[in-house]
Amino acid sequence: MFKRFMLLAITATMMCFAAQAQKFGYVNTTDIFNVMPEKATAENTLKSVSDKYEAEYKNLQDAFQKKISDYEAADKDATTPQAIKDRHNQELQDDYVKIQNFQQTAAQDLQRQQETLLAPITQKLQNAIQAVGAEGGYTFIFDMSSMSILYTGTGAEDITAKVKAKLGIK
Questions:
Q1: pTM over 0.70
Q2: Other Cβ atoms closer than 10 A to 93
Q3: 126 vs 44, 120, 130, CA distance in Å?
Q4: Where are the beta strands (DSSP E) in 103-145?
Q5: How far, in whole angstroms, is CA 97 from its chain's centroid?
Q6: Which strand ranges, in their side-by-side order, compose the sheet holding 24-27?
Q7: How far apart are CA 19 and CA 17, in angstroms?
Q8: Of 26, 37, 102, 136, which has the maximum CB count within 10 A?
Q9: What's the N-to-C CA distance of the chain in angstroms?
Q10: Are 157 and 25 in contact (CB under 8 A)?
Q11: Which tens digits make up the pLDDT trace of 56-84?
């Protein structure tokens, strides 16, 4: 029994020393990401592309609405043959499908461009966090923007400012 007690005491002591050797930090990547100048540039580029897609979509919609009006006028004419009315309906259906495909393609392209533009910014932030972690000798760095921590003891350090400094952000 005494041997068990000694083994438990030695294990507890070793765990205390091991816990003291670890250094924990936390960072809020969302706060940093939102003030990175590259993010604003990427957002401006995406806004420009999005505006172009919206303008093209409006043009397609306007042309479609005009075609509907024209076809409705022709279809009301009692002398218009059924074959022409059927062709009008088919053209409207085809145009509607084209507009739907355009919307889908535009959304996919915007998503792809967003990923392409933001990936290097995210990587730059990750590199800065890793550099601060290595320089500071941290065991773990937690991201406060993506997880919930109910208690932060005195052993943890907020390294957000250090990461911002590494990125040259005030």
A1: no
A2: 10
A3: 23, 10, 6
A4: 140-143
A5: 29
A6: 140-143, 24-27, 156-158
A7: 5
A8: 26
A9: 60
A10: yes
A11: 999 999 999 999 998 888 778 788 888 88
Q: Is the CB of residue 25 less than 8 Å from the CB of residue 156?
A: yes
CA max distance for the chain: 110
Residues forming a β-bridge with 167: none
Length of the chain: 170
pLDDT at 3 over 50: no
- Tell me what percent of the chain is helix, strand and coil, each rounded to the nearest 5: 75, 5, 15
Contact 138, 129 (CB under 8 A): no
Instruction: Please write the tens of the pLDDT for every residue from 134-143.
Output: 888 877 788 8
139 three-class SS: coil
Structure tokens given for 110: 């915007």
Q: Which tokens go with 36?
A: 């990175």
Q: How many CA atoms lie within 13 A of 146 on its CB side?
A: 7
